[in-house]
Amino acid sequence: MKDGKGTYRCGADGAWEDILTLSRDLPVCVPDCALKRDTASSRIIGGRNAQLGQFPWQAHITTEDSRGAGVLLHDKWIITTARLLQEVDLSQVVIKLGTTSLREENYIQGEPGEVFIHKDYGNGTIDNDNDIGLIKLKNKIPIGENVQGICLPTKEAHFHISHRESDHHVGIVAGFGQTEMSRISSRLLFVEVDVVEQQTCREAYQKRYDRVVSENMICAGHAEGGRDTCTGDAGTALAFLDAKTNKWFIGGIASWGSNCGDKHYPGVYTRVSNYLDWIENIIKNN
After folding, report:
1. Which of 231, 228, 237, 233 is nearest to 263 (CA)?
2. Which of 124, 166, 269, 286 is the one with CA 20 to 30 A from 139?
3. Does 112 fall in a domain?
4. For 154-190, how does the pLDDT look when each residue is reduced to its tens digit (9 = 90+)?
5. Is residue 255 left, alpha or beta, with left meaning phi > 0 and alpha meaning psi from -120 to 50?
6. Number of folded domains that form the chain
7. Which residues contact 154 (CB under 8 A, 6 or more apart)?
8. DSSP classification of residue 159
9. What's the rounded Cα separation, in Å, for the pair 215 and 200?
10. Which residues, in sequence order, are bridge partners of residue 170?
11. pTM strictly above 0.90
12. What is the dihedral of CA 149, 272, 132, 142, to 10 degrees?
């Protein structure tokens, strides 16, 4: 139940009613999200095989001319990058959930009904700024042990993400993208990445590629390199564990980068906390 309040009974006419108020307006039922499961420690690029149910929010998305990832929210919405959804033909979009192998036929398929791209994506002077989009599915996804939405953060301080040890500074990413062998993986892989100090990341990309890392972005990788998302991973979650609830929340969405696994140029992720109002408004009004 969304607000966690109320006690209900079956009324004389067979309808549910609130014991205190006699109201028949039932509360909204929101599926639970991303409870922590044992995750083997690993320090994609540099990844190891995921087990079924370890990343129950993971979605693999293919379009007419591209492939990437998405992240299940609740049971009818998927969050991903705007880039993957631009000018997409929904009849050509295939969404697979509840699997760790693209060679298996045992998966749950999500049927896209409508897509929403942030209105400021591609309209500014900064490449890949506001790289966020939502897919509304035609039907609800059956939630279970192996398929479950990830939690969204709130604006509370304890969800803050930075390179500082006092904040969420180590995240985990999973995907079917390109590996260090330069091949697309048929198995779901995962790896831990460290959040990189914003100014360090900004200066590296500005100096070498003349690209801007905005405040709408998070950089994550590893000081020695070799841990990263890569081609085919765009749209996957940079997930963090909330110690208060023992649940995973999505802090970032894999967006762009350079030279997968290069220690000087970490992966760049859309900072989800900057778009909470946008996400809420889209879902509420659609």
Report:
1. 228
2. 269
3. yes
4. 999 999 999 999 999 999 999 887 765 556 778 899 9
5. alpha
6. 2
7. 276
8. G
9. 13
10. 194
11. no
12. 0
Dihedral (CA of 271, 267, 193, 234) sign: positive
Domain assignment present for 195: yes
> In the beta sheet, which residues pair with residue 195?
220
Phi-psi category of residue 180: left, alpha or beta, with phi > 0 → left and psi -120 to 50 → alpha: alpha
Strand partners, 221: 194
Compute the C-alpha angle 127/174/228, nearest 5°.
55
The kind and range of the H/E element at 15 are none
My answer on whether 128 and 264 are in the same domain is no
Rounded CA-CA distance 195/218 in Å is: 7
Does 122 share its domain with 163? Answer: no
Write the pLDDT tens digit of every residue in 58-86: 999 999 988 999 999 989 999 999 999 99
Gyration radius of the chain's alpha carbons:
20
Work out the number of other CB atoms within 10 angstroms of the CB of residue 41.
7
DSSP state for residue 258 in the 8-state scheme:
S
Sign of the Cα pseudo-torsion (40, 188, 238, 243, in order): negative
- Read off φ and ψ for residue 285, nearest 5 degrees: -95, 5
**280 and 184 in a common domain:** no
Question: CA 9 to CA 185: how far, in whole Å?
Answer: 51
Q: Which of 204, 224, 222, 223 is nearest to 212 (CA)?
A: 204
For residue 73, give Cα distances in angstroms to 18, 230, 251.
29, 23, 13
Contact 191, 44 (CB under 8 A): yes
Residue spans of the chain under pLDDT 50 = 1-3, 39-43
* Cα end-to-end distance, the chain, whole Å: 20
